[in-house]
Write a structure and sequence with these properties.
Layout lengths: L22 H6 L3 H25 L3 H4 L12 H9 L6 H32 L5 H11 L8 H10 L7 H4 L6 H14 L2 H9 L4 H12 L1 H16 L3 H6 L8 H8 L7 H36 L1
Helix pairs in contact: 2-15, 4-15, 5-9, 5-12, 5-14, 6-9, 10-11, 12-15, 14-15
């Protein structure tokens, strides 16, 4: 009597696929066309910054010449000194005001957005869905439609030509609340909140010890987006800051562009000065920001 040993059945085509790359490997392998697209995208993204440095480092005649120069010159330091010494632009004051306004709004947006997002995601109260719909509806209204009543309100409060007029109306926004609410839904388990409740944590304690650390990646992304948005804000500061002695950085850059004579080298040098803070912020917090984006993509 013979004993038959049952083993794994041979897979059809197994011998034929030996030595060949798997289909999934071929899917994720970069092709020359992929590399070309990536390099072209990087060049297209970096060229405006390079061109800004080229024009900022040359005289105004060279900036307006044809064909235009494609290599940096030796006048960058001189042009930056001319921008800093320009009394009409007052760019040093503009930088200080923009740091104050953008930093205050960023901190407030992240703090209040995470609080409201936690409440909408994990707490139970009457009218939660209706309030969330109101917040979403507020995101659809552009600031231009509310300029007149908001300007009248600032005048009633005697805030015109002051920093509260460009700070207070933007301390909290619908986008920040909605973003933190969506992230809290996935990042904060209900079991963790219940465990904190059992340990005796109040609602504030749950937020501070459990929710806030879990929302840190999303807070970094929201902070960068808010800081960039407020740093580049021009329309509303242009409406309420009529005093040239108290501008934001975007109003200072506008003052460099005269209606009768445009000194492009000075304008681009001022733009370079205004861009450097954003670059520094991204370098300092880039790792947390990219980590937050990737973690949010994995969770979703």
């Amino acid at each position: 009597m013979t004993t038959t040993t049952l083993g794994p059945r041979p897979v059809a085509g197994a011998g034929k696929t030996r030595g060949r790359p798997h289909s999934a490997d071929r899917l994720w392998r970069a092709t020359p066309l992929t590399w070309f697209g990536l390099v072209f995208g990087v060049i297209l993204s970096l060229f405006p910054f390079y061109w800004m440095i080229v024009i900022a480092s040359r005289t105004n005649d060279a900036a307006n010449s044809w064909p235009p120069p494609f290599l940096p010159g030796g006048r960058l330091g001189e042009n930056i000194q001319r921008v800093l010494a320009n009394g009409d632009a007052n760019i040093v004051k503009g930088l200080m005001n923009s740091f104050l306004v953008s930093g205050t709004i960023t901190i407030a947006t992240v703090f209040f957005g995470s609080l409201a997002g936690f409440a909408f995601a994990k707490l139970r109260f009457r009218g939660k869905n209706a309030l969330l719909l109101v917040i979403l509806a507020s995101m659809m209204v552009p600031i231009q439609l509310g300029v007149l009543p908001l300007y009248i309100l600032m005048a009633k409060l005697n805030w015109l030509n002051t920093m509260p007029s460009v700070t207070v109306p933007f301390l909290i926004g619908g986008f920040g609340i909605f973003m933190m609410r969506q992230y809290a839904e996935q990042a904060v388990p209900n079991e963790l909140i219940e465990a904190a409740r059992v340990d005796g944590c109040s609602t504030w304690g749950v937020y501070w010890h459990v929710v806030a650390p879990a929302l840190r990646p999303a807070a970094a992304v929201l902070g960068l987006l808010t800081f960039m948005e407020q740093w580049n804000q021009f329309f509303w500061p242009f409406v309420v800051l009529a005093d040239p002695a108290n501008p934001t950085v975007q109003i200072s850059l506008r003052s460099l562009n005269s209606a009768y004579f445009a000194d492009n080298s000075q304008i681009f040098a001022g733009t370079l000065i205004a861009t450097l803070p954003l670059f520094v912020v991204f370098v300092l917090f880039g790792r947390q920001i990219i980590g937050g984006i990737m973690e949010g993509a994995v969770k979703s």
